[in-house]
């Protein structure tokens, strides 16, 4: 599979719709914001890498971090852990607004598979060279804000999970020691070009998101009734 490479024009965008344990969310990715970041993120979602993975770092008013998948596909795992170059900074997109997405990293050109969604006080993000936004949550932000936060940050700042054991032990580590964490269910991706009727598609995506949200509430209601009666 190799390293990430450009797969579309700078005008390409993608709508990513996901079911999560807290309800559906829709994300809009923009290649013009961060070409390398867009290509990697969109490809990983398309290949189902994030399906059933957990939001392992949920810090109130700061961010939600995710991206450690549980795939057993050796090629996909190697692809996800390969690094991509940083993209040029986009000062016009700063400071971070709630719902924006970017990659987590540790050094220049270190982006691979881990990402975060900003919460309301994440304005300090964006200064590191790898923190170039590539998209935003456009539907279901309330569900993102409702992700379980009781464990706090990772040690030593909180009692949340450590990343090393997630990579080594996978979902079993989370299910055993952090069972209340929320997770993705499955996601779908639709790529589009700005010049090819994207407004109509976005509208239809919003309608579908509303339908998914209603379906989620109905499932919760049925589950509640089953438990209480």
TrEMBL record:
GO terms for molecular function: peptidyl-prolyl cis-trans isomerase activity. Its main location: nucleus. PROSITE patterns: CSA_PPIASE_2. The chain crosses the membrane at residues 200-217. The keyword Membrane applies. Its EC number is 5.2.1.8. Residues 19-147 form the PPIase cyclophilin-type domain. It holds the Pfam family Pro_isomerase. One of its GO terms (cellular component) is catalytic step 2 spliceosome. The keyword Protein biosynthesis does not apply. This is Peptidyl-prolyl cis-trans isomerase, cyclophilin type. Gene3D superfamilies: Cyclophilin-like. It is found in: Nucleus. It is an enzyme of class 5 (isomerase). Keywords: Isomerase, Membrane, Nucleus, Transmembrane, Transmembrane helix.
